[in-house]
Amino acid sequence: MGRVFFNERKNIHDLTEAYTVLDTDSGKVFTLDSAGGAYQITLPTAPQRGFHCKFIVKEDTPTGDITIAAGSTIIDGVNDDGQGNVANSTVGTAVSNIIVEAAAKQGDFVELMSDGVSYYAYMVGSVDQAFTTS
Questions:
Q1: What is this structure's pTM?
Q2: Which end of the chain is more exposed for a tag (fewer CB within 10 A), N or C?
């Protein structure tokens, strides 16, 4: 019997303007570029259990802030930057937004997953204040 190979390549979606993430976008990697100015990415307000995606800063020092918005206070997560500062972690208090600040650098990223009720985020920035929350 022959070997079965699975396509393990990531589905990459480049973002340069406002976008509404769909449940069918689960598993995608989104690259972020704000050369055209600030914009918002809207997450599904009722996330499916197992939904996951990743946002990677493509532009070294974004031109404008990019807001990843859940629409309600359902994001919990840890923000870790190059200086070991976790001050922008949610610390047990859910937030509505993750802001990719203009200070972010190419390669900084946010990973999101959902248990069907909340989003859980892991933010890694190479500089202090690459990501903030609100």
A1: 0.88
A2: N
